[in-house]
Description:
This protein is mainly alpha-helical. It has one domain. 43% of the residues lie in helices and 7% in strands.
Amino acid sequence: MTDHRLYIVASVVATEVPPDSPIEEFMAVIDVIRNRAKRTQEVGDLVMAVLAKNQFSAVCREDYWRRAMAGYWQPAHVQKCLDLVTQDWPDTTDGANYYYSPISMVPQWSAPSWAAKFEGKTIPGVRPDYFKFFKGAYP
Length: 139
């Protein structure tokens, strides 16, 4: 994958995971992206996984997305995510392919309707107020 394509993936991770988050949260979000990419027709295409319609807040929020793609959205944070995206490790999520952030939900702490249909995954080092991970397939 070329650097510009990796930059797209790193920008999504950077807008999903706050800069001061534990490394386990970065890894888990990256693992969800990798797990989704494995499901797509173009196996392993991380860019297609992050750009899928209505899947990641960064892509859905045009203000974030434009700034990240222009290199204006926390460049050091995006670089950290780029460094992580290029690394390899065993899946930390046991196959999770969805997550949400309770603290950022509207209303706060609510759960999206889809969450009840999926198997919850507890990931060591991940703060449950910030991320809840799930494994499942949309019907």
